[in-house]
Amino acid sequence: MRVLTKILRRQPNREKAKPNELLAAPTYNMWGRVSDFAAEIQKSEFMVGMSQYFEGPDGHGLMGALDCATLYGLTRWQRPAVVVETGGYLGMSSAFILKALADESLAQAKLYSLEMNPDCDHGAMIPNELRSQFVPLKGRVEDFLKRDELPSPIDMFLHDSSHRYRHMLWEFRQFWARLRDGGLLVSHDVHFNAAFAGFVAKTHARDKNGVMDVERTTHHDWGRWGYIGFVIKKSS
Ligand SMILES: C[S@@+](CC[C@H](N)C(=O)[O-])C[C@H]1O[C@@H](n2cnc3c(N)ncnc32)[C@H](O)[C@@H]1O
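That is the input. Now the predicted structure with S-adenosylmethionine docked in place:
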């Protein structure tokens, strides 16, 4: 409360401004839009069709329904032209990204999906009508980056490969550098360890009172919904 009072004192128009307006990020309205999109897909025939796989033999490794709905909502809000995901597997997350691109009529957009397991039927669950914008890439993300074979800049990145702490942090750093200003970094399974929380903390700058220094902070906003975490990049 003392911190809020200090901030209010610093504002020249403090009589007119409400406290939540002073503290809100410019992207604050995204929360309502993303949750509306997520609610829409949860009630859709598309979700009914994809749900058959959650109970199937491969259900264990797939992104869950709530997280798929959040991912769909974030993709529709962001309207990306270039998306990269790591850990494509059978294509549950891919299908929801591609569905969001289709629902936003982003016919030129592409989803580059990396999967290292040579025995995996990469993207098998993606409905046929969504496949034209899917670019499957077989191999380790480490090797694709080493050979500089991935697009840059990118609008949106999804991490869903190995959830080891060091690997997650490494992917976040690698793809953060490739994201454009306003680009969206998304991670699945952020509850597995503190990599996502630690990464977000590094994008925060604070003033001498411990309050966020908006000028020096390198994200526009960030959040966590279910097991999905996201950060919106601001170029420094
Ligand atoms: C949890 S599954 C991904 C699920 C998928 N996103 C979905 O919703 O259907 C993780 C996948 O990441 C792949 N993987 C793990 N480490 C990787 C790496 N270094 N490069 C590329 N793929 C990797 C694994 O082979 C596995 O298929």
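Residues 61-63, 86-87, 89-93, 114-117, 120, 140-142, 160-162 surround S-adenosylmethionine (CB under 6 Å).
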